């Protein structure tokens, strides 16, 4: 759509609906009703995927801050990463490593 000139801004947002309610895909912007706080604009780390640089992640009292590229996806049901780090977060969230 960008190549065709149909869009002016290289921006999109996704809201994933909950409890059977519909989600939303918005091109060229976002709806501030779907989140709290501010936005952080990020450059992608890979030209072929939605990889972004992650400086830090926190879950409960667990924090990892060693800077790594992560893949974002609205369809992913898995978390991929270094085994020792993913295991710690899975344990904190009540998940299991397979």
Automatic annotation (TrEMBL):
Coiled coil (residue ranges): none
Residues spanning the membrane: none
Peptidase A1 domain mapped to chain residues: 1-98
Superkingdom of the organism of origin: Eukaryota
Protein name according to UniProt: Peptidase A1 domain-containing protein
Organism of this sequence: Phytophthora cactorum
Taxon lineage: Eukaryota, Sar, Stramenopiles, Oomycota, Peronosporomycetes
């Amino acid at each position: 759509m960008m190549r065709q000139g149909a869009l002016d801004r290289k921006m999109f947002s996704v809201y994933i609906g909950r409890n059977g309610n519909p989600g939303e895909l918005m091109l060229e912007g976002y709806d501030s009703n779907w989140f709290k706080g501010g936005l952080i604009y990020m450059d992608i780390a890979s030209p072929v995927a939605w990889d972004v640089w992650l400086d830090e992640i926190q879950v409960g009292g667990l924090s990892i801050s060693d800077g790594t590229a992560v893949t974002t996806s609205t369809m992913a049901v898995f978390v991929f990463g270094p085994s020792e780090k993913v295991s710690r977060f899975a344990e904190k969230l009540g998940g299991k490593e397979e």
